[in-house]
Amino acid sequence: MTRRSVALLIETSNGYCRGLLDGIISYAKHHANWSIHLTEQERGAAPPAWLQTWKGDGIIARIETDTIGRRLRKFGLPIVDLSAARHVKGIPWADTDDEAISRLGVQHFTERGFTQLAYCGDPGFEWSNLRRDHFKRMTIAAGCSFHEHQMTPRYDPDFSWDTEKRAIATWLNQLPRPAAIMACYDFQAQQVLDVCRELEIAVPEEIAVLGVDDDRLICELAEPNLSSVIPDTKSTGYEAAELLDRMMQGEPVSPRQRLITQPLGIRVRQSTDTLAIEDVEVARALSYIRRHSLANIRVTDILRHVSLSRRALEHRFMRLIGHTPHEEIMRVRIDRIKILLRETDLSIHEIAERAGFEYAEYMAAVFKRETGTTPTEFRAKCNA
């Protein structure tokens, strides 16, 4: 098998692109004999210096600027583009399905009872504008109200985070509540969450926030943890590599070839894990439970933060949520335990401590009562 030299001009600074790289590497390992050239770079970075003297056979790139596009055109080599910006016409490209991503967002919010839906985008990215258009059309078709905020493009020389925070704050204060916001990608969603925290807006009770890309570092570090659409980036990268391999072997490929992969779903975390509740006191109680669920709180603790009697609070919970405040505390605690079991290597004893249980045996008994399985069995099933 002929060994071919392939350049990857793909940023390594975000989860989306690392997923693309995983797919490309998987294809190369199992189906190709490639010498791969990849250096660490950021989105929209200038073409790397080594490209000037590089002699190779094919390129997979995220062509995010005209500068990179013009440089790559000069090579006259097979190229697959992984950007929706389309700075170079007439070459094959691969991307995720923006319409499907928007559909997941609208469905996620409407299933939770939200009727005020909003989109926060970056007009500097064509894929953000496409997602906005699809999201708006589907929101209106669902009989909901549509709102939007467009930030200054992140790479604009006039971009200022202080200015953007003020603009987001103004927008959030004007949104009717409860509202649900889909941001064009996780980084933008995190920025919205930061402003919500500064304004003391309860997330997700008053405003739910959804990102796109499921970038684990961003989503898990966000406060609260960020729900996000999961793109199938590994498949996108794999199919792009397969297409480039065919092109390098001389197989005719249409310059209009498109590889569009479907998103895998939504990873639900705290930022959208709610139902749309207009009752301010119930929303405040839900917010308190989510923030303090691992501190072994009781209903009496909630009552100190709402202007309701215990009887009134329980009545409103049953009417709006369908169960009691105590049952909601237990539901949230069990969900947190599931996350720790699924996503960490902590021992059962350590998880019990983090979940506010004095004894691991008691936590295990409660977990089995609520889920029908033990923590150990649950973890084994997740790792199967």
Automatic annotation (TrEMBL):
**What PANTHER family does UniProt report for this protein, alphabetically?**
LACI-RELATED TRANSCRIPTIONAL REPRESSOR (PTHR30146), XYLOSE OPERON REGULATORY PROTEIN (PTHR30146:SF24)
Name of the coding gene: xylR_3
Q: Which PROSITE patterns match?
A: HTH_ARAC_FAMILY_2
Which Pfam family, giving just one, matches this sequence? HTH_18
Name of this chain's protein = Xylose operon regulatory protein
> Mind telling me which InterPro entries this protein's record contains?
Homeodomain-like_sf (IPR009057), HTH_AraC (IPR018060), LacI/GalR-like_sensor (IPR046335), Peripla_BP_I (IPR028082), XylR_PBP1 (IPR054031)
Alphabetized, the UniProt keywords read: DNA-binding, Transcription, Transcription regulation
Superkingdom field = Bacteria
Query: Where is the HTH araC/xylS-type domain positioned along the sequence?
Result: 283-381
